[in-house]
């Protein structure tokens, strides 16, 4: 379920360590197809994708890696016919680990989606919804 301005983790859209390739492309595509269907059903909505890495490693490298990961998801959605202008991609590196993985863990290598519904103001504050996870 997707609600306006709430972030959700794209289940099964995970990445190999230090790579911007899907760890399980078939499963990732099933989840991405759900996002595509949503955007097709609500043609005035936009989506913000938030890319993340684990906390380990060089901060600049992690920021670049999260940029590549979120760009891959954006390109994949756009390749399915969604106008790329409806997809905003933001990358955070390792700065926003999930609370249960604050000391590190592969689940931090993720992409989250935040729907911006028609008429809603863009609020992509870096702390939105993550403090509760």
Question: How is the topology of this model organized?
Answer:
Elements: E1 7-14, H1 25-41, E2 46-51, H2 59-79, E3 87-91, E4 110-116
Structural description of this entry:
The structure is a single chain. By secondary structure, the chain is of the alpha+beta class. Helices cover 29% and strands 20% of the residues. It has helices at residues 25-41, 59-79; strands at residues 7-14, 46-51, 87-91, 110-116. Strands 1-4-2-3 form a four-stranded mixed sheet. The chain starts with 6 loop residues before the first strand and ends in a 17-residue tail after the last strand.
> Major sheet: order of its strands?
1-4-2-3
Quote the distance from N terminus to C terminus. 16 Å
Number of strands: 4
Helix content: 25-40%
Radius of gyration: 14 Å
What average pLDDT do the residues reach?
A: 87
Q: Low-confidence parts lasting 5 or more residues at pLDDT below 50?
A: 122-133
Which word captures the global form? globular
Q: Beta-strand percentage?
A: 15-25%
Order of helices and strands: EHEHEE
- Coarse structural class: alpha+beta
Number of helices: 2
Largest sheet: 4 strands, mixed
